[in-house]
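Section 5.1 Outputs to date
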Amino acid sequence: MQKTEIIKTLQADPNFDEANINELLYQSNRDIAKRSSTGSYIYLLIWFALVLPSNLWQVNSNLSIIVTCAFLLLACLRLPYVFKFDSIYLKFPGVWRYGFPLIVLSPALMWGTLCSLCFVIPKLEPYALIIIISTAGLTGGGVAALIPSRFLTIGLFSAFLVPPFITLVVTQHENVSLTLVFAIYWLGMYSTTNEQHAQYWKALKDSLFIKNHAKELEHLNNMDELSGLKNKRYFNKALMQNVKLAARASGPLAVMLLDIDNFKQINDKYGHLVGDVSIHKLGEVLKSIVKRDTDVVARFGGDEFAVILPSQDRQRCVEIGETICRAVASLNPSSPESSLVDQSPQVKFTVSIGLCFSMPTSSTHHNDLVEQADHALYEAKHQGKNRVVVVDNH
């Protein structure tokens, strides 16, 4: 399906950007490949149903051989487009864009030509009725399969119906009724596919809109607005998954809990606004230091934060914790880029960190790691705060 066709369909809809258009383009073309898979073999089956029980092989053996070989070749060429859609569409877009329409429309044009030959070759006249009926059936089925694309649907029913229509106009002046039937059928196909095409795209757009909305809701449900980090709900799910992965891979996993030292005094002395901004600033520091895609940084609750560090050795985890402590302690309230909040009382603060380093097994429970990290955090507070205390889980 042509990208300009999709853009034209969506140009009046502000809910879809270029990424959405590309996703719709992919989905519509994938639908076409899947829905039209019957076209790989239906022509051959109907052709054999026409030829094998009859004496058409003897009546016109040359035509029978040519048509059979042509349908077989086109069927073989079409199979990769059905079963290797992703490979062709993503790696060879030109092959899909130009090759698929050619493969789809060629057998339809062949059948339309065969139908037109029934009116000019006397030996084929006995088979005209079944060929005409088959033409109508193939037209309706093919159009329904290709409905995501107006270009392919119009091309398909035109390939089926225009050759016999022209032949009737030129050679069968007395057969006005049949000529009109082909013309009316073409107009009916055109009108019907317009409505079906619009319905398909409305359903596809609605589906993508719901999908995007669900992703947005899921994202919001997993986010903590104040800190800009993931929330406790997301952390718990991620920790369970990481424990299982680490156990399966026999790899290390570290869980870090940290909170702001003397946070209650900050709230009591400066107010909750400064306390909130302190939490936000700590979230920024954590995001700037813990940056791997596999790491998880979350606000655990209140002024407490949690970090998951998979596949890191013990020393590196300790270094990350110490880096966080130094970065927070070195925040300079007097510099604009690190001020806690404009035109509000400025405070310096520190954090204490409890780190649980483990080599999970199948019997390890994620809550045990959190509990041990919490004990280490309590010990860091007891030892004087602004430090990292490590406990090993074996």
